[in-house]
């Protein structure tokens, strides 16, 4: 019996990167929902209740850290694993992500699509 | 000699010829002589005793004189610190007390300090309780002595007016006793003046009669005279020094404050006044310190505890430097140092404010720029990377051989660019000196084993095997365990990882038929050892790779430099790896060097000081 497809919420403002992850994750068997700014990201998270959130940090309207904080403060959403996918890479950013409760922090340009998919699968299992 | 013998000698006669009378007379003469001798000896003894007594007395006098000189010397030394006239007198009285009989009382006035005197007082050092009568008598005596001063004495008229006015007595030592009817039956006055400047009067008195000798009076005058001269010279010297320093400090663009051991600010220069808006001196340091706030110091809740810092400086005698202290819109570097007297005792401190607002601003912009630039560059690179990967993986359609080939090229170039951006980011962080070094004591053997494990997959791909030679005790014939050493794990990992990666990547791949690599062709040996007990720890990475050509060896650590053979072997290298490694190693207090032969192999050596890596504050927070 096949399990229901896992739902991934992708919050990313660059349209090309967004399309790339959407296609790649889709082909890997996931259902992908996208948001292109922080506010939309919050809304979709509440509406869709995804199994995992891929969150960019530099976002219009509301930035990634703010979104992360809000998610963790929301009882319905706080247990969804959030993987930060950003091109900011300072130690301070990573520490902040950690302290706010992110499950992982990946620098986009350092990870191939395959590697990202592996990470998603890993964190989905871990969060069960 | 028997008496009879002497009689014979004396008389020159024979024993038989001597009559009893003669014998008796001879005896008497001898006795007389003996008596005379005895007297002579007695006189000599007396003379010697007298001389001894004189010597003794002289010695006593010398001792007294010596102690007086000592007192004088101490006084003069102490006067070095007493620029206030009142202090001067106090010290002079202290000296005088040591050379005067015990019951003597001292009183002094110091007209020189009139302008800032809140009360017109005669200061009294009483050895016995004194009553009103006694005090009035002293006052009267001083007044009289005053009148006797030459008219040419400076300030005489003001002093005259002052002394004729209301004067009260202030007991510095001793107490008032209204019931005492004692009068100063012996007294004299000595003035402390140099040239025509009148510094004050000392009245020396006692309830006992005729207690002072001329010698005493002379002694007091001498002491006071010497004191006066010394004070004058000192004051002049100090005044000119003070003026010089004052103008120097005033002219500084840095703000300078000086404070004493009670944390009261004693001096604040023009620049500091402008910076803080505080103007009057002699305020407590806390007025100053509450103006400042700290950046990012969580424990103090954002407030910079300058009070704590200066207490620390005053107590430990060690200077303190604060990288960032914020005052309104400005940022300052703060230096606090102790100030000592000539004996080395801490008598206060100095605080210097160095405006670094502009520098911090530029720094911030630079960091922001690097952050933003790297982010901006990475974004399109990511898009390219992902799409090329999916295209190349034939996820959206089959590719022919040429198309696949082209895709591989694009992919490789993209990876190069990504790597370059990463390296530039690292270099930028290192170069702006904002690199954090946080050493922690760890077991280095385990640390290296971890890095090797991480590198193994890559090594296997290249057909390499990494060996780890752990520290070995030759004398005992068994492995020895190194003590824990403080190193910054993140940085050191980068160093060792980079060296191992280089060893792997620059080892030529000889794939034999069947895909097996010839054993031993790519052996990488990582060695960890400590030369002697207290010696440095040395990590070395040895390969059998392409080696570094002689002409490239001197430039191998230079930014962006790549040797020709390396460029051919691995075109996508950035030339930043070793540059970064060297910077990190040296910033931590270690050394790096290598041995290499082209075509044979290379060994890189890195040392870590046994005291461990030096800590360094970086981007986050600042000195606590």
Structure, explained:
- The complex is a heterodimer of chains A (128) and B (624).
- Chain A has 128 residues and is α/β, with parallel strands linked by helices.
- Helix content of chain A is 46%, strand content 18%.
- In chain A, strands 2-1-3-4-5 form a five-stranded parallel beta sheet, sandwiched between helices.
- In chain A, helix 2 packs parallel to helix 3 (64-73).
- Chain A has five helices and five strands; from the N terminus they run βαβαβαβαβα.
- The radius of gyration of chain A is 13 Å and the shape is globular.
- In chain B, strands 7-6-11-10-9-8 form a six-stranded antiparallel beta sheet, sandwiched between helices. A five-stranded mixed beta sheet of chain B has the order 3-2-1-5-4, sandwiched between helices.
- In chain B, a hairpin with a 4-residue loop joins strand 6 (255-260) and strand 7.
- By secondary structure, chain B is α+β, with helices and mostly antiparallel strands.
- The longest helix of chain B has 60 residues, at 20-79.
- The chains are: A alpha/beta (128), B alpha+beta (624).
Précis, in short:
The complex is a heterodimer of chains A (128) and B (624). Chain A has 128 residues and is of the alpha/beta class. Chain A is built from five helices and five strands, in the order βαβαβαβαβα.
What is the topology?
The complex is a heterodimer of chains A (128) and B (624).
Chain A: E1 7-11, H1 15-27, E2 31-35, H2 38-48, E3 52-55, H3 64-73, E4 82-86, H4 91-100, E5 104-107, H5 113-127
Parallel strand pairs in A: 1-2, 1-3, 3-4, 4-5
Chain B: H1 3-11, H2 20-79, H3 85-99, E1 105-109, E2 121-125, H4 132-147, H5 156-164, E3 168-173, E4 186-194, E5 197-206, H6 214-251, E6 255-260, E7 265-268, H7 270-276, H8 285-289, E8 293-294, H9 306-316, E9 320-327, E10 330-340, E11 346-355, H10 357-392, H11 401-431, E12 440-442, H12 444-461, E13 465-469, E14 472-473, E15 478-479, E16 485-487, H13 489-505, E17 523-530, E18 537-543, H14 550-553, H15 564-569, H16 577-587, E19 592-597, E20 601-608
Parallel strand pairs in B: 2-3, 13-17
Antiparallel strand pairs in B: 1-2, 1-5, 4-5, 6-7, 6-11, 8-9, 9-10, 10-11, 12-16, 14-15, 17-18, 18-20, 19-20
Helix pairs in contact in B: 2-3, 2-6, 3-6, 10-11, 11-16, 12-13, 13-16
């Amino acid at each position: 019996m096949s399990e229901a497809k896992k739902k991934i919420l992708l919050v990313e403002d660059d349209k090309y990167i967004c399309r790339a992850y959407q296609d790649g994750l889709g082909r890997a068997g996931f259902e992908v929902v996208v948001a292109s700014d922080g506010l939309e990201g919050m809304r979709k998270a509440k509406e869709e209740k995804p199994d995992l959130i891929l969150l960019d940090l530099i976002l219009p309207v509301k930035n990634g850290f703010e979104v992360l904080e809000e998610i963790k403060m929301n009882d319905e959403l706080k247990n969804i694993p959030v993987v930060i996918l950003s091109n900011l890479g300072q130690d301070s950013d990573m520490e902040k992500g950690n302290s706010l409760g992110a499950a992982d922090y990946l620098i986009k340009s350092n990870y191939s699509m395959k590697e990202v998919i592996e990470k998603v699968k890993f964190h989905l299992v871990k969060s069960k | 000699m028997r008496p009879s013998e002497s009689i014979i000698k004396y008389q020159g006669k024979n024993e038989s010829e001597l009559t009893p009378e003669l014998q008796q007379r001879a005896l008497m003469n001898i006795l007389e002589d003996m008596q005379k001798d005895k007297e002579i000896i007695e006189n000599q003894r007396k003379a010697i005793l007298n001389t001894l007594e004189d010597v003794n007395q002289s010695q006593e006098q010398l001792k007294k004189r010596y102690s007086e000189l000592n007192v004088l010397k101490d006084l003069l030394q102490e006067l070095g610190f007493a620029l206030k006239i009142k202090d001067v007198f106090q010290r002079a009285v202290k000296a005088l007390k040591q050379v005067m009989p015990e019951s003597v009382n001292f009183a002094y006035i110091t007209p020189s300090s009139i302008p800032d005197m809140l009360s017109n007082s005669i200061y009294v050092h009483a050895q016995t309780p004194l009553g009103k009568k006694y005090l009035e008598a002293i006052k009267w005596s001083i007044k009289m002595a005053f009148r006797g001063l030459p008219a040419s004495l400076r300030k005489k008229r003001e002093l005259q007016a002052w002394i004729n006015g209301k004067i009260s007595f202030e007991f510095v030592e001793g107490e008032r006793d209204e019931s005492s009817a004692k009068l100063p039956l012996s007294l004299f006055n000595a003035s402390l003046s140099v040239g025509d400047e009148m510094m004050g009067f000392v009245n020396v008195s006692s309830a006992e009669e005729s207690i002072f000798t001329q010698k005493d009076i002379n002694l007091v005058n001498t002491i006071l005279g010497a004191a006066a001269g010394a004070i004058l010279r000192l004051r002049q010297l100090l005044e000119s020094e003070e003026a010089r320093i004052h103008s120097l400090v005033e002219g500084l663009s840095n703000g300078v404050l000086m404070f004493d051991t009670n944390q009261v600010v004693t001096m604040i220069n023009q620049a500091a006044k402008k910076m803080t808006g505080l103007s009057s001196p002699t305020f407590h340091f806390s007025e100053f310190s509450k103006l400042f706030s700290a950046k990012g110091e969580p424990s103090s809740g954002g407030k910079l505890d300058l009070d704590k810092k200066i207490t620390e400086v005053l107590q430990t005698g060690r200077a303190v430097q604060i990288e960032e202290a914020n005052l309104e819109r400005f940022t300052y570097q703060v230096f606090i140092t102790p100030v000592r007297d000539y004996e080395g005792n801490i008598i206060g401190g100095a605080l210097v404010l160095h405006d670094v607002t502009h520098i911090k601003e530029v720094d911030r912009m630079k960091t922001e720029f690097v952050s933003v630039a790297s982010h901006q560059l990475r974004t399109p690179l990511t898009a390219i990377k992902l799409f090329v990967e999916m295209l190349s993986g034939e996820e959206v359609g089959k590719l022919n051989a040429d198309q696949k080939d082209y895709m591989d090229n694009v992919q490789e170039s993209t990876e190069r660019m990504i790597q370059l951006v990463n390296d530039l980011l690292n270099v930028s962080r290192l170069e702006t000196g904002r690199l954090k070094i946080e050493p922690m004591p760890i077991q280095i053997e385990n640390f290296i084993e971890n890095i090797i494990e991480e590198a193994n997959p890559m090594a296997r791909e290249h057909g390499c095997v990494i060996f780890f030679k752990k520290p070995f005790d030759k004398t005992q014939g068994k492995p020895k365990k190194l003590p824990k050493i403080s190193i910054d794990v993140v940085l050191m990992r980068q160093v060792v990882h980079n060296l191992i990666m280089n060893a792997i990547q620059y080892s030529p791949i000889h794939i034999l038929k069947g895909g097996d690599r010839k054993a031993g062709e790519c052996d990488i040996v990582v060695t960890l050892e400590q030369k002697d007990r207290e010696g440095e720890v040395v990590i070395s990475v040895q390969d059998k790779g392409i080696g570094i050509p002689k002409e490239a060896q001197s430039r191998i650590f230079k930014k962006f430099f790549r040797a020709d053979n390396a460029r051919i072997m691995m075109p996508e290298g950035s030339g930043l790896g070793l540059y970064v490694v060297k910077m990190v190693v040296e910033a931590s207090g270690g050394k790096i060097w290598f041995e290499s032969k082209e075509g044979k192999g290379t060994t890189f050596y890195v040392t870590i000081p046994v005291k461990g890596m030096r800590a360094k504050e970086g981007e986050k927070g600042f000195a606590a």
